[in-house]
Structure formats: structure tokens, C-alpha cells
Design brief:
alpha+beta; about 80 residues
Length: about 80
């Protein structure tokens, strides 16, 4: 299992979601990680929580709990702080 894992709460046909995914891949470079894209429209609870915020990026490492890093756009400073911790 890669040390870093990410979840992007998204929607189908969401260009911001695709942009965040691309920016995350570029920022992570050669690190080992997994990314799961989750369509919030398929889950009423996720829809209620994240409706107007997508894309939302959650991050975790070494099997620990995931934390929300940012929404709308990749926050490179928060990602760097997460990776450095």
C-alpha cells in the first residue's frame, strides 16, 4: 500500500475536479500514492455535505485517518505541509 492516499469528492463533468486531480498528480511527482475519485451525486450523505464545495481533497498517510486539505482548487501550501508532517 502506498504511504499516501487521497480522495477527491467530485462530480461527473466537473472541470474543477479534473483540474484538481491533474494538479495533485503534478505536485506529487514521483511519490507513491493512490487517488480515489468519489462522485458525490451517488451518495445522498456526501451530496448534503459537499454539494457546493466540490472538488474537495482529503488526504491520509500510512493508513491513518484522512483529513480535508482543500476545496475548489489545490492548495499547494497545505499539501506541502501535509507531506512534510
Amino acid at each position: 500500500m502506498p504511504p499516501y492516499y487521497f480522495t477527491i469528492y467530485s462530480r461527473s463533468y466537473c472541470h474543477l475536479c479534473d483540474d484538481m486531480h491533474d494538479a495533485l498528480r503534478a505536485a506529487l511527482g514521483e511519490r507513491e500514492y493512490t487517488v480515489q475519485m468519489v462522485d458525490i451525486d451517488a451518495d445522498p450523505a456526501l451530496l448534503a455535505r459537499y454539494d457546493e464545495l466540490v472538488p474537495v481533497l482529503l488526504a491520509g498517510k500510512n493508513g491513518g485517518p484522512a483529513m480535508q486539505l482543500c476545496h475548489y482548487f489545490l492548495d499547494k501550501d497545505k499539501l506541502a505541509a501535509f507531506l512534510a508532517a
